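[worker-b] picked up task from shared queue
[worker-b] task type: protein-ligand structure
[worker-b] ligand name resolved to flavin-adenine dinucleotide; SMILES cross-checked against name lookup, match
[worker-b] sequence length check passed
[worker-b] input payload:
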Amino acid sequence: MKTYLEKARELPVRGEYDVIVAGGGTAGFAAAIASARRGAKTLVIERMNCLGGQMTAGIMGIFCAINDQEKVVIRGLAEEFFDELHELGGVNDGLLGYDRVKSEAQFIDYDAEAAKSLCNEYVLRERAKGNTLDILYETWLADAIVEDGVVKGVVVENKTGRSAYYAKCIVDCTADADIIAWSGAEYEQLPVTELHPVTLITKLAGIDKQRVLDYYYNEHPDWVHNSPTKGWKEGIFHKFGIHNELQGVELPPELDYLRSWFMLIYESPRDGEMYLNMTGEFHVDGTKTEEISESITISRKRIDECVSVLKKIIPGYENAYILATSSIMGIRETRQVKGLYKLTEDDLFAFRKFDDAVATMSAPIGHHTADGESAIFRNPDGGNSFDIPLRSLVPCKMDGVIVAGRCISASHDAMGATRIMPGSFAIGQGAGVAAALAVELNVQPRDIPSDKLRAALLEQNVNFEA
Ligand SMILES: Cc1cc2nc3c(=O)[nH]c(=O)nc-3n(C[C@H](O)[C@H](O)[C@H](O)COP(=O)(O)OP(=O)(O)OC[C@H]3O[C@@H](n4cnc5c(N)ncnc54)[C@H](O)[C@@H]3O)c2cc1C
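[worker-b] inference finished, payload out:
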């Protein structure tokens, strides 16, 4: 490849912090609040104009379970946040009621815009308490500053130009482990042919929801019975695929793929709105902008095609239109840090507990097939949970940095459970506390004593089942 030798230049160091949270997404939001609450001088660096990542800018609208199908297991910030979102009317509790949604259903459907506002409110509250929580929005992380095997800071690009920020501990919450990769720390990434497909989440409006629900619940209850997620039966609508709906319907050959395509349609708490999560493209490397760009172009075409078909075949969708598409591509899988410990499917199904746990969670192992056609969920037995240990957040050979969210050290199968938003949120809180604690104790994250970590997490209402 042709190359260009960029001129060396001195960068202004615009800030020095205890903790920098790189990427203010699902995990990054929780990490930042947890770090600031612990009293660490904290900066979040985020390329979008809001906190929450896939949870907000990604308009995901479906937060998987904070429970083990019997009781709440993820407490702390995640529970606090969703209780408040519910009070604000931002949660769809259907006929189940919020308490049962929270403690039994395998998802909480919510309004992403309300979640965006609530993230902002959480930041303002920390500041009102006197805690330092600075944010750089519309800022791209561009490099890691490494000295003697320790990440000391980051280089960023934004409207102001290129500059550097230093911190005593950095939490890589970019989902793609960008800081890890740029620092030279080790990571793993599967070939594109094995990665989860990508999706541009879409919010539809103009829907007569009652007619849609009547059509399914009264006319075709057997079509919705195939939902692998618990909760829909009691009155929250989740519909996987439109295979049955398309039986006997003629489609032009180029739309025939919709018959067997992965698709999940679920209810927003807002009138007339539903979310559409359908495979946008497959075999995409989410660390390559050319590939992401092409997948966005293809996804938009597929969304248009799907909506045009929904409008024709399902009563209640006649006047549906696209209200919004996600502001960031929905990448399910890229890099996983090579950590001190790699979580596996065995750990999850054995409900393994760890002394250095930063979070406890329970979730099905969700596997979106690489061809984009289906999603397979393997459910753990209800009433059980597993831990995420700090050592799965700590890179095996780099200091000054830990990861949180989707890019933790986990196998392809295990990350199919840990990557969900409740997991990312809980791991984010754990990472924020751990980073602040490392700074307080003046140690590297790998050297944080487990008893001190647990005590600090309990102070923030984090729950452990062991
Ligand atoms: C299509 C799709 C469907 C999903 N469905 C569900 C579901 O139904 N339920 C569920 O619970 N979970 C679901 N998930 C999983 C879940 O949304 C994510 O795995 C989780 O949000 C990951 O959290 P995170 O903080 O690691 O990443 P993100 O929330 O993606 O946050 C990463 C943040 O870092 C920022 N960032 C990244 N790189 C840079 C950079 N270089 N510079 C500056 N900022 C940067 C991003 O803008 C973003 O805000 C889904 C995910 C996808 C993609």
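[worker-b] attaching auto-annotations
[worker-b] The chain has a mean pLDDT of 95.
[worker-b] releasing lock
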